[in-house]
Amino acid sequence: MSLDARIQQSVVVNLSNRPAPVWVGPFVIGVDPTTASPSINYATPRPGAPITAGDVADLVAAFRAADRTPRLEYVTGCAPSLEGLLRDAGFVVEARHTYLCCRPTTLRTPAVPDPYQLRTPDTDELLAALIGAQNAAFGAEPVASPADVARVRRLQAAGGVAVMAVTGDECAGGGQAVPPADGVSEVAGIAVCTPHRRRGLAGAITADVTARLFASGVDLAWLEASGEDSWRVYTRVGYERAGERLYMTMT
């Protein structure tokens, strides 16, 4: 299986493990009844599956039936004709992201900068602190709902990873990785709150999450980079450019 196909298949498995997945022809929609967020409720195609305009129309209808915004994320190399079909149906490009990959032989683990420590959030209070810090770092409200906490608890219970950076009683940031599928896992949500940036913490978090995946038997970790700062962080700890993912949505 090609690298693109492995990454794409891992997304298919991740979405199919959502609380209420919906299969529509070659697509799966990862529906989560606890939130309408398009960043959580989106679709992706099975790698290499043939796709028609009728399949896209059925997908849109399924999104409407689920009361969710039609949206997709996928590896472009696994469905080269899909972008045109989506544009014809009224979708627009939301973003194009490069994905990077890391293997056990390429991972570099920097020291955790003082005075921070990295730990696993193992209580609802700590999970809420991690989610709040991530939200704040990404410009959202620094709060975590009970549904948010339950979502990360499910991730951990299924074999995923959550790591938080703490100093004293403060959560300075953190990151996560989804439950592995056939030796592949996505690292996501790497975040450092503004007062704690430019100290090497993002790289330490990324490397720690990745090392935990490899210790559990994962052989391929991947993530997305969307700016120069994140590129520098990820390449310094051993991630290498691998392919492209496309986000498309219907407004």
TrEMBL record:
InterPro entries linked? Acyl_CoA_acyltransferase, GNAT_dom
Q: Which PROSITE patterns match?
A: GNAT
Q: Could you tell me which SUPFAM superfamilies the record lists for this protein?
A: Acyl-CoA N-acyltransferases (Nat)
The superkingdom listed in its UniProt entry is: Bacteria
Q: Domain N-acetyltransferase, which positions?
A: 116-251
The name this protein goes by in its record: N-acetyltransferase domain-containing protein
What is the native source organism of this protein? Dactylosporangium maewongense
Show the taxonomic lineage.
Bacteria, Bacillati, Actinomycetota, Actinomycetes, Micromonosporales
